[in-house]
């Protein structure tokens, strides 16, 4: 994502589905919580920075030997602590009494190892009577370099593929071929059933990949909406969407 830390495991309250147009229509998802000037949000938000401006991190030094893959034995404990911290019984939950119901994987650096293990452990909490939602935002080059193996588990409820900042698989003016080819690969190769087209909400929101609303409506959406896994458009982010006085979301909602 633009202007975020290279690796974050964010709270699932990351997006709000808005402007849903009916049971069979697509929805628009939009990121909120990354800019102090984007207004308030009554429904939900997500955090990547906690107390004293610190980014959450796990330091296993002294507890296992990463060079021999010994740290995998700590997987159940890590999973338990993570779940209790976000939605269980920990007294240090970041949102107080609020109990979250899922986790969002936005991994854009570090390692590509064991995210599948974490997804399996977290998904196991769904067997205890309450659905645990898992979502991810991979880059559009397939397979994703970081969460590709995790997505193979089939445990992710929503996948928000980022079709920007990656010229080989994004839209360029008048040419939808690269994006369409990548979309078909994503929708045919991973077992997730709900896949969103991730786009910047304004030219300033990403280095490349912005699609004018008129082009999205007339040239892009007609090529991808016939996919059974299509669920709508994800926008990065509300702050940038608000820069468009005409309303990017409003301009595309009847076509999504």
From TrEMBL:
Keyword line: Glycosidase, Hydrolase, Signal
Membrane-crossing residue ranges in chain numbering: none
Signal sequence interval, chain numbering: 1-25
Occurrences of domain GH18 (ranges): 1-256
Name of protein: Hevamine-A-like
Record GO biological process: carbohydrate metabolic process
Single Gene Ontology MF annotation: chitinase activity
